[in-house]
Fold:
Amino acid sequence: MIKVAVCGANGKMGREVVSAVKGAEDMELTARIDIICGEFNSIEKAHEEREIDVLVDFTQPQSIYENAKYCLNNKINMVIGTTGLKDEQIEELKELSNKNKTACFIAPNFSTGAVLMMMFAKTAAKYFNNAEIIELHHNQKKDAPSGTAIRTAKMMAEVNENFTSGNCAEVETIEGSRGGTSYNNIHIHSVRMPGFMASQEVIFGANGQTLKIRHDSTTRDCYMPGVLLAVRYIFDKGGFVYGLDNIL
Structure:
């Protein structure tokens, strides 16, 4: 049995992970960690009292980096679903994972459909020199742009050097109206409002045509197969992995 702890266990995603782990025949939920009404209010407390093979973290952008450093420095394998990590932080976690021989799996999105959307976008990016990303989330999401949008842009930038080919010189009469400019000039637009959970659309353009690739998550249980897949993967194989697409 894989002994799993969930950090952020009382959050919306955390509750889904707790339920999924409890329903998995090859896993045992050993600790619920949450600063509000958790079985444990810190990873350190849970680590002292319970055996943990894999810790799954769905907390907040402001806490995930320190949580991850503690786990990797204390031989706790980790699956990270919390977004908001910066590129340099991810690189440091990769170094800690390798140095301490402790597994770390980071995924901006655990939905199979969202991962396929990213993979399809990367394929399309080879053939279009103009592209933008629109991501839409509920108004309680703190980080922008989303981890999924950042990951998508990175994957697209691996196969094309510039996504504003032929654009005229632009002047924003309202600052930010063109969104944020990310890797290789991919503009990312973030929408935050009630009524959405998580959606993303990648728009490609060329003379006389557009291509739109879109994914919508309507309930949080769509992420759970991917979370359990990541837990099993790092328990069996170890190492550092960034992105669910690397193990599908």
Remarks:
- The chain is about 35% helix and 25% strand.
- The mean pLDDT is 96.
